[in-house]
Amino acid sequence: MGTFDEEKKNIDEGDELLKLLESQEKKAAIRKTEGIIPLLKGLPIGTIVIAIIVIILGAMVISLASNIAALRGEIGEIKGIKTQLAEMEGRLEKSGREKDGLRSEISRLNGEIENLKTQRREAEARAQQQKQQQVAKKKLAQEKPKSSTQEKQKSVPTRR
User: Fold this and answer.
1) Cα 30–chain centre separation
2) HEC letters along 97-131
3) Which tens digits make up the pLDDT trace of 51-100?
4) What is the pLDDT of residues 7-47, one digit of tens each?
5) Where along the chain do its domains lie?
6) Dist. CA 153–CA 158, nearest whole Å
7) In this structure, how many other beta carbons lie within 10 angstroms of the beta carbon of residue 29?
8) Global confidence as pTM
9) What is the rounded distance in angstroms from the CA atom of residue 111 to the CA atom of residue 106?
10) Measured distance CA(147)–CA(89) in Å, rounded
11) What is the DSSP code string of the chain?
12) CB pairs under 8 A, 24+ apart, for 143-146?
């Protein structure tokens, strides 16, 4: 039984409250020294799960944002490459047309060269014929004077 003072209050009750408060303070101090685990134990499981999901989603959003930035950079590079490719295609078509023009010019020049070669061969053949004719004329010319000198010798009376 509790002790009562003159006003009929229970004196032991105050001591019990003090002891209860001291024990709660000790428990709080122990909780503070233990770290995060007691804090998590004090929270409801749903709150912990939601917090973990929010953290994971935040990491995913950051990762996606960096991937999107990288993709935008690559798209810019691809656009640059496309413009370079279009320029190169234009130059390639132009060079193809020039190549075709040069081929036709080369074939025309080859035809002219062949014509000149045949004309030269014909001229050489004519020159060869003329030389042969001249040589033949010279031979005839040389033979005629020999024969005429022989005839002169025959026609001229000799004195004996």
Assistant:
1) 65
2) HHHHHHHHHHHHHHHHHHHHHHHHHHHHHHHHHHH
3) 999 999 999 999 999 999 999 999 999 999 999 999 999 999 999 999 99
4) 555 555 567 777 888 888 877 766 555 556 666 667 788 88
5) 10-42, 44-132
6) 9
7) 10
8) 0.40
9) 9
10) 84
11) ---B-TT--BHHHHHHHHHHHHHHHHHHHHHHHH-HHHHHHHS-HHHHHHHHHHHHHHHHHHHHHHHHHHHHHHHHHHHHHHHHHHHHHHHHHHHHHHHHHHHHHHHHHHHHHHHHHHHHHHHHHHHHHHHHHHHHHHHHHHHHHHHHHHHHHHHSPPP-
12) none
48: which residues sit within 8 A by CB, 6+ positions away? 40
Residue 74 vs residues 5, 62, 63, 83, 109: alpha-carbon distances, Å:
87, 19, 17, 14, 51
Structure tokens at 131: 């030389």
Burial 7-21 (b: 16+ CB within 10 A, else e): eeeeeeeeeeeeeee
